[in-house]
Every structure is written in structure tokens, then in C-alpha cells.
């Protein structure tokens, strides 16, 4: 039986929601991760340091007793973001980063940014403060095919933005394409990317295997196999500018299995195990700790966890559903075999 011991991983991209869903999902992330970067796309969005501090309090209240877990908060950028307020929130230790959602790109992005260039004063202040910008990297326009949104975002928005702000640190969240992986590789040490488990495990065919499969629907959408393979190569290389960010995005079952279903894969209950499957299949377990526990903290500038955890190659069955009061959420690998397990007692 293979096993791996590593510093406790960090999830650099999670959605916890609020209320009952928050209470139900936080324990899954807190079980496996020392810290997480928490997305701000609540309703209403987290746009002030006070809102983020309050939200952090609600998250901490949902962490089980005795579990050591640190949520790191982000600010949702809007057309009205005030540079001084944003960097004050960073300086005060509330905001780890700020998130750019192009307007209408994804779940709860209606308040997102309509003109990226108009936010240049915000980006300049962030660069001065050393505050990372996290991007939802899709250009959403009626003329842009859904499968081309990421490449178009890079060409039309991100490359010019990086040129205008040469010292701004940027994380392209959840890259899904060969173009995304290549662009990040060429960006030096101020550009990085998170990669989700589903984009490493699947290509777009899984969305239509025997019928339409809403639980694989997320944004950016799954791409062709050549992109999946490029992402696997990037992640398993151990290179410093790729790191773990699950984009775990819980939606109630009935809201995904619907005529207009929500985007998001709830991966938190099986997250580290899902990535381990990929690294084991690609014979790259020696690079797993870099991807899962070291590269993200190094980019953000915080210390990796001092706690060591062990995962063993041991089979178990993922739950079909996770309960939220009298509703359910369907996780990644629902009812399927999982190859890796957290060693007990550690
Ligand atoms: O699939 C997704 N779900 N992609 C996103 O960008 C947002 C997320 C969510 O909040 O549900
Ligand atoms: Zn996300």
C-alpha cells in the first residue's frame, strides 16, 4: 500500500456560501486543509472589510471543536471599489486578496466588474500593497463561444492588465485550458494559477455520458481532452506557479438538477483524495506536497502548515449526498470508489 506524508494542504479557492449550507460544508474543508482562501460571491457580495470580518466569524463558528483551520478572506471587486478602503482591509489583515469577476461570468457575479481598465487605480494600489488579484478568467460576450472564453480573457483582458501593472501579483483561478497553463508558465513569479480536481480528472465528454450530467457542470466549463492533459502536466510538474484550489462550489441538489442548473462541483468531501488520484496515476506523488501545501503559501507569502498528515492508498466509498437540514448536496465521486484516504489518528 502506497502512502504519502506531507504538510497539511491549503485550498486556495473555496466557496462556503452562508447559513445552513456554510454550516454543512465548512467541516469538510477544515478536516483536510490548514487554511483556505474563501471566495466572496455571497448575496450580497463581500465588498467591505467589515462584511469579510463578520463572514470570517460565521465560518469559524462552523469549524468543529478542536480542528485547527484558518479561513482567509477576499474582497469582491465592483465598479465602485475604493482603492484606499481595499488596501486598508489588506493592511489590517482582513483581506488576503481581491477577486475580479467579470460581470455575469458566473454564480452571483451580477455585481462584477463591467470595465476592467476603469479599475486601474484599484490594481495600482493593490500592486503597491503587495495584495494579490484573483481572476475569474473568462471573457463573457455573446460573440465568444463558451469554450473560448478563457483564451479570449487572456488575450483581451489579462495580458494587457499585466502589462499595465508589471508588479501586480495575479492568480488565474481555476485554469481550464492549455493556453491558460502556457500563459501562466510564461508569466514569471508574479503570475500563478489554481487548478481544480474536476479539470484534472475529466474532459468535456463526461458532461454528456449517457445523458446530461449536471453535477459535472461548472464554470469555466470542462474542456477537450488535450486541455485536461495540459493541466495534468502543469499540476504534476510541481512548478511553483501552479497550486491546489478546488473551487468547491456547493449547490443544493434540486438547484443543479434543474432546467437551468447552477454551475459548481462540490468537491470538499473528497478533495485531497481526488488530486492524489491524479498525481498517483501520473506517477508524480513526489511533486504533490509542492502543489498541495507549499506553492500556494509561497505565492501569497504565508508559512506552510507545520502539521503533517498522511494519506494511504486505501479504498472507500464517497457519500451519495451530504445533508443540509432536509435538503441534499451531491459531492464529487458520489457513491463511487475513492482510492486514497486520510490515515486515521493523524
Ligand atoms: O462553477 C462555478 N461555481 N464557477 C464559479 O466561478 C463560481 C462557482 C459558484 O460560486 O458556484
Ligand atoms: Zn470559484
What does this structure look like?
The protein has 346 residues and is α/β, with parallel strands linked by helices. The chain has one domain (8-307): TIM Barrel, CATH 3.20.20.140. It is built from 11 helices and 13 strands. It has helices spanning 19-32, 49-62, 83-91, 120-129, 149-164, 178-185, 197-201, 225-236, 253-256, 271-281, 288-300; strands spanning 3-7, 10-14, 35-38, 70-76, 95-100, 133-136, 170-173, 191-195, 242-244, 308-317, 322-324, 327-329, 337-342. The strands form 3 sheets. Strands 2-3-4-5-6-7-8-9 form an 8-stranded parallel sheet, with helices on both faces. Strands 1-10-13 form a 3-stranded antiparallel sheet. The longest helix is centred in the middle third of the chain and has 16 residues, at 149-164. The two termini are 18 Å apart. The protein binds (4S)-2,6-dioxohexahydropyrimidine-4-carboxylic acid (DOR) and zinc ion. (4S)-2,6-dioxohexahydropyrimidine-4-carboxylic acid binds at residues 15, 41, 106-107, 136, 218-219, 249, 263-264. GO terms for molecular function: dihydroorotase activity; zinc ion binding. Zn(2+) 1 binds at residues 13, 15, 99, 247.
Short description:
The chain has 11 helices and 13 strands.
